[in-house]
TrEMBL record:
Provenance organism: Streptomyces mauvecolor
Pfam family, one: Bac_luciferase
EC number: 1.-.-.-
Catalytic EC class: oxidoreductase
Matches recorded under PANTHER family: LUCIFERASE-LIKE MONOOXYGENASE (PTHR30137)
Name used for this protein in its record: MsnO8 family LLM class oxidoreductase
Keywords, alphabetical: Oxidoreductase
Family per record: To bacterial alkanal monooxygenase alpha and beta chains.
SUPFAM superfamilies: Bacterial luciferase-like
Luciferase-like domain ranges (all copies): 19-297
Gene3D superfamilies reported for this sequence: Luciferase-like domain (3.20.20.30)
Gene Ontology terms for molecular function: oxidoreductase activity
Length: 328
């Protein structure tokens, strides 16, 4: 049984054989579906220059989903501070929070959102990667602008995305809640949490440590179907292992014939063992285990599968199993 709220991270996969406009159309349908299923929040990730993931600004996706729903929380997971002027992010998310009170989250991350160096430089108008000091200054400036400059009324809830102890230390010092990228760097999760909780300083934003753990989660009626659904993302990950970032998101049928090397299969199996993939019973058991082991206040599931219906079905199966296994 999972006794913490469950949310979703949407990465806006552009499926092979489709166009980005179709992915955009699906985002509103996805948000409405998860609201009906009772999920707590949806966050949207910032990505650039990838054939597998749409370069759709989170702030636009949030506004679109907010107009299509009525209660579910919506936010960024995350907007990447080095790519934006702090005051611009404060204005954008302050406006969203004023339009949709008590529903908007501002999740802030550090990475460039792309593996392509030229694209990263374009995003930063020719500048190189942000230093630790620059990133820390940007985060502090965003928070300051939210309070002192925007002041439209209800504020968005700020979060810091973390996959390293440096991010955990910054979140702890600023008194921010954190979202831990277990779906990206699972080997770092427990070290990040230990550093964060040990160093946390209460603030106006957060009185105590608050943790969301993000988990790659693929659920289907059978283990075989879940593995089949996981195939397309496995192809993308295998490409990244080789340093190839421009890998399209294939169909499950195409992924099933992909010639993985023995080393890739071993790496993918090791990664999947730390996530949650399988039948509803197995997935909910694994998620409950992660919630207990990490002490998470909330779990955020990311489900990078081909086909909107299959993605919604995965979330629906998890919710249904949670409901049927609730204690009387």
């Amino acid at each position: 049984m999972i006794d913490v709220p469950i949310s979703a991270l949407e990465v806006a996969v552009v499926e092979s054989g489709t166009r980005g406009v179709e992915t955009l159309r699906d985002t509103a349908a996805f948000a409405r579906s998860l609201e009906l299923l009772g999920y707590h929040r949806i966050w949207y990730a910032e990505h650039h220059h990838s054939p597998a993931i749409g370069a759709f600004p989170p702030v636009v996706l949030i506004a679109h989903a907010a107009a299509s729903t009525s209660a579910i929380r919506l936010g960024s997971g995350g907007v990447l501070a080095p790519n934006h002027a702090p005051i611009t992010l404060a204005e954008q998310f302050g406006t969203l929070a004023a339009l949709h009170p008590d529903r908007i989250d501002l999740g802030i991350g550090r990475g460039p959102g792309t593996f392509d160096e030229a694209t990263a430089r374009e995003l930063r108008r020719g500048a190189g990667p942000a230093t630790d000091a620059q990133y820390q200054d940007d985060v502090a400036a965003i928070l300051s602008f939210l309070v002192d400059e925007v002041a439209l009324g209800p504020l968005p809830e700020p979060w810091l995305l973390c996959s390293s102890t440096a991010g955990a230390a910054l979140a702890a010092r600023l008194g921010l809640p954190i979202a831990v990228a277990h779906h990206i760097q699972p080997d770092n999760t427990f070290t990040v949490l230990e550093r964060y909780r040990a160093s946390f300083v209460p603030s106006r934003w957060c009185e105590r440590p608050r943790v969301v753990v993000c988990v790659e989660t693929i659920c289907a009626e059978t283990e075989e179907e879940a593995a089949w659904r996981a195939g397309p993302m496995d192809v993308v990950k295998a490409g990244l292992l080789k340093g190839l970032s421009e890998i399209p998101f294939p169909t499950p049928a195409d992924a099933a014939t992909h010639p993985f090397t023995a080393e890739e299969r071993q790496a993918l199996a090791g990664f999947r063992a730390q996530q949650a993939c399988g039948t509803p019973e197995a997935v909910v058991r694994r998620l409950a285990q992660l919630a207990t082991e990490t002490g998470a206040d909330e779990l955020m599931l990311t489900t990078p599968v081909y086909d909107l219906d299959a993605r919604v079905r995965s979330y629906g199966l998890i919710k249904k199993h949670c409901e049927t296994t609730k204690a009387p």
